[in-house]
């Protein structure tokens, strides 16, 4: 992969740098790796678990003068005490359903995280692209303002000669002079606006640069069809459906009997005397069974909760499907209208540019009034601004349409 430029100018460069620098994308990638580790942890939990058990319990007994116990446990139960030091190994058995469902849940979580990463990358791309177009529009406006100022300054020098020659009055020239000074202010305002928008773009992408560079014209994306259920925004509801199914199976698994194989070895005695402890070393094993009997109908309540979540999921997905189709059709209509509008504005700009050029020549000979020339320049400036805005709006619609094709 080629290194990112220090002062990016292309949209693709800003997108690449933003993807590299995004802490949210890195955090999502780390969560995907953590999900893989969770699967390994679950596998280890299903293996043999070994732990140590130690106890030193004494059960006092108080008797009366007749030798009858008045306080304490039955000696047949306690034998006076319990002293143990054991190593115990346990392993779940006959839990294939529980284990497979746990693995499916972890796999589903991994799919959700990867889809979240796609959504995050798409949102990042959308925000960077939108700000790039805003900055590009400001840069285009600055370029035009500077070009117009250069032309006015050239005319200013010519008009001074015409004023000195008596072709124009000094009061007429002052109107043009004020227009030049106003355009100088406009150029400075446009420069500050471009610097601000470019700075915001660099801030979003994580670019440490302050130089004022010219951005390259972004290439409009190709026209692609609307993405269906494979779109990240749609796929999240498909994954939610799978998660709810697995949650229901997890409820079922929780009510299945649980069996553990148990094996322990060590010493266990009812006396703390060394001789008794020495003869109390042994081992044992067997099975532990846990069977749920009654929990107040919690299982049915959990089913009801899952069903309500499923109803919400279906409602969201249906609304989003209609919303995306409506937005896609609207954007296609906007692009068609923008194409027609751009054709009209470009024709008007061409005519206005020709008129300004002709008036500039006549101004040099004194055949056109300065005020009329300035009115033409103002109209040309307004049309050029409208052309820039229309081009940027069309690009925004093209990119927005492309997002819906993801």
From TrEMBL:
One of its GO terms (cellular component) is cell outer membrane. One of its GO terms (molecular function) is porin activity. It is found in: Cell outer membrane. Keywords: Cell outer membrane, Membrane, Transmembrane, Transmembrane beta strand. Its main location: membrane. The keyword Transmembrane applies. This is Transporter.
């Amino acid at each position: 992969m080629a290194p990112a430029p220090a002062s990016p100018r292309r949209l693709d460069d800003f997108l690449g740098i933003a993807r590299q620098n995004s802490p949210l994308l890195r955090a999502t990638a780390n969560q995907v790796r953590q999900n893989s580790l969770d699967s390994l942890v679950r596998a280890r939990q299903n293996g043999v678990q070994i732990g140590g058990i130690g106890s030193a319990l004494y059960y006092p007994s108080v008797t009366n003068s007749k030798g009858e116990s008045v306080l304490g446990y039955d000696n047949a139960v306690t034998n006076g005490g319990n002293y143990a030091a054991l190593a115990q190994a346990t392993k779940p058995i006959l839990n294939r359903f529980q284990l497979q469902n746990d693995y499916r849940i972890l796999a589903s979580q991994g799919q959700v995280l990867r889809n979240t990463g796609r959504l995050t990358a798409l949102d990042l791309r959308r925000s960077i692209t939108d700000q790039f177009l805003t900055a590009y529009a400001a840069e285009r406006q600055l370029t035009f303002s500077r070009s117009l100022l250069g032309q006015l300054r050239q005319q200013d020098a010519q008009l001074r000669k015409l004023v000195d020659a008596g072709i124009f009055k000094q009061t007429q020239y002052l109107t043009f002079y004020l227009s030049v000074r106003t355009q100088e202010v406009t150029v400075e305002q446009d420069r500050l606006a471009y610097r601000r928008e470019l700075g915001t773009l660099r801030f979003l992408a994580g670019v440490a640069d302050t130089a004022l560079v010219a951005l390259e014209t972004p290439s409009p994306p190709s026209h692609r069809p609307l993405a269906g259920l494979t779109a990240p925004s749609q796929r999240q509801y498909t994954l939610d459906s799978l998660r709810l199914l697995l949650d229901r199976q997890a409820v079922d698994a929780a009510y299945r009997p649980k069996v553990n194989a148990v094996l322990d070895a060590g010493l266990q005695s009812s006396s703390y005397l060394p001789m008794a402890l020495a003869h109390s070393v042994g081992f044992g094993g067997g099975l532990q069974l846990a069977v749920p009997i009654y929990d107040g109908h919690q299982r049915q309540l959990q089913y009801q909760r899952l069903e309500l979540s499923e109803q919400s999921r279906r409602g969201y997905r249906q609304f989003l499907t209609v919303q995306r189709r409506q937005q896609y059709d609207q954007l296609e209509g906007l692009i068609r209208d923008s194409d027609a509008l751009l054709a009209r504005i470009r024709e008007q700009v061409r005519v206005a540019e020709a008129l300004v050029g002709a008036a500039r020549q006549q101004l040099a000979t004194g055949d056109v009034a300065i005020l009329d020339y300035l009115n033409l320049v103002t109209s040309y400036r307004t049309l050029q601004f409208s052309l820039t805005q229309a081009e940027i709006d069309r690009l925004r619609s093209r990119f927005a349409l492309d997002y819906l094709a993801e």
